[in-house]
Amino acid sequence: MKRGLIQWNKNVVPIEEFEFRIGKTKKTMESRGVDVLAIYGDACQANNLTYLTNFFPYADTGIFVLPLAETPKLFTTHAYRNIPWFNTITWVKDIVCTDHIGEESAEYLKTLDLAGKKTGLVNTRSFPFPIYSVFQKGLACDFIDFTKDFEKIRMVKTKVEKEFTTQAAHIAASSFERVRKAFRQGISGYELAAEVELNSRKKGAEDVLFLIQPDCSPCGLSLPTPDPIEKMCSLEISVEYQGCWAKLGRTLFLEEASQEYEARLGELSRGFCVAVKNLRAGSPFSSLAAELRNQCALSGGNGSLEVYFDPGLEPYWGIHQKAEGVFQNDMIFHVRVVLKSEAGLQMAMSDTYLFENSAASLMFERP
Amino acid sequence: MNEDSMREEIETRKRKFLQSMEEQGLQTVLVYANMLRKENLRYLTNFNPLEPGAVALFTSKGESILMTPVVSEAIRAENGVWMDDIFSYDGEISRIVSTLKKLEISGGLGIVGWEYVPMELIKGLRSSPSQIEPVDATALVHRLRVVKSESEVQKITKAAQIADAAFSYLVANMKPGMREYELIALTEYKIRQSFGEDNFQLLASSQGESRAMHPATNKTINPGDIFLTEISPQFDGYYAQLCRTVVVGEISKDRQKAHDIMYRAQQRGIEEVRPGMTASDLARIQNDVFREEGYAEFVSEKYTRGRGHGIGLYIDEEPLIAEGNDYTLAEGMVLMIHPNTYLPLSGYIVLGDPVSVTSDGGKRLNHSERGLIAI
User: Fold this and answer.
1) pTM for the full predicted model
2) What's B80's DSSP letter?
3) CB contact under 8 A, B217 and A4
4) Across the interface, do A319 and B72 touch by the CB < 8 Å criterion?
């Protein structure tokens, strides 16, 4: 769960930023004939909720009810004692603290006279059934899944989001440098994680996730262990800064690492660069994986190549292979590739890109 | 804990779980995990998901299946997870439904994690041709989890030692002028160095106006501040917690008095906790100290959440130590005893330690000093 710096700095993120996001959302609601949105989030999956409100239910859950015309309201399972802190992070004035967010938010929705109208639900992948059930029983309206519409809105980043992701990328890159310097034979994943935590949190990271695959472990990229690293490791550093994530992953070798490793990594790196360079606005997300496989095959790679893609919507997870959409300007995306050679070598690489002016550029200096 | 012992413990848990299923007349149970609540799945499978939506199925015939939302998670689960089958459902709810269909469920389907199971999954189950009707079966696992085994207590004890180390490191390095989020960096660093896999931490710093703790802000730690923190490191899946209050500068008489009252309340709770008493009894024992001192008003929900809670694979487990909760305490439970509260003498102050319930009273699992600390 998150425990880094969480704030609303009004000098950096003026209220107009949230008004703009709300405006974009309402426009899409109107075009879909939706009268009100109910956006669900919890302490580990609040990105959609936070996007519109900057609210974060740090240990519990929340629902943001956004009607087209009436007052928006936040419902949370946190206690009223937390309101002074909530007031420092969100512009929403109407916050209801309750153990029964389903019932309480349904009561509010009832006052909006929704008979025969449409209520859009956001986060249906995590929207709890018990809350949905309360809505269904108590409200005479149609429910539609608004998640994809909402994600389309979020995929196009504002200037503020791009700045925050750039900051997240810089923090990730500086933490990677610390890891590179600390990397030595016998060091454990936990010791490397300690370096990442210290550096990232000191620089204001809101959240951090460090994944590591020591010595081609069959587990793939996973949480650190106390075991000493012998020859090499792949790692991925994910950093969140003010709600925006950047990921950086590389494979590190000790001096005695085989030349084959180095050669394969070079091929992977070159294939990655060419595939990203070939991206065009309007190309489907799936084209990147195809191009990566193509490039890595062209560069003589054998074995398998796994490609994971996240269009900048989820927290540190979300490396789904099935994300839908097309590349468009002002988009941020994360890519992880994992190369597995026939000889059992495994290496991973993760990058964060900004797609702007019809071209993708890396959000940090290539390590 | 070595792999053989862990496997044996997981098999024991599964056997007990199957017995509970049988008693409830459930042929199949689905255990759902999101990123906030993955403790039930971890308890029964030893799998620690990194993506939301992992699902485990258990049948009364003893079959066990783990389904992950993405392929990389299924690969991770191939090690240290002992299930009959492990595969990725690739984000397609229909694949979970079809797997259930193959199991030919005739009785009800129990769901563990009902409170947060996503609507898409239940809708998928109900709309399947076999019209599977799910029911809440979360209590089956909670009942098993609430009393800890010896190895579970050992892991919580290790997490408690990590919390001790992290807090000592924090106090030794915190200085006026530092920002709240920089203090988080210090504890996270020490926790990772001590092999803590995760942490949940809240804090607050003020001249006494705090009513609750919260995530870190960019506020500066100032002379005269009262600083509160709750550090909750996780070791091998298990959390422990440590709540402490630090004064930046000299300790005033009022702050010392407030802390003394809270200390006595906690001490009484630790000494008098016994198997067979209720969570309400344990809360009352602590609250009575505040009442005796003339602060009866400040034991209400307006000023405090409760006098503690269970702890284990989740940071805030049953039972909540609060008056009115008739949950009976048992030997082997691990509880946080923390009479954290707002008092007008000091503002919000905290003191909390993990304690295992024994027939001789509470046994503290950590070693940090419990007095009010000045830096």
Assistant:
1) 0.95
2) S
3) no
4) yes
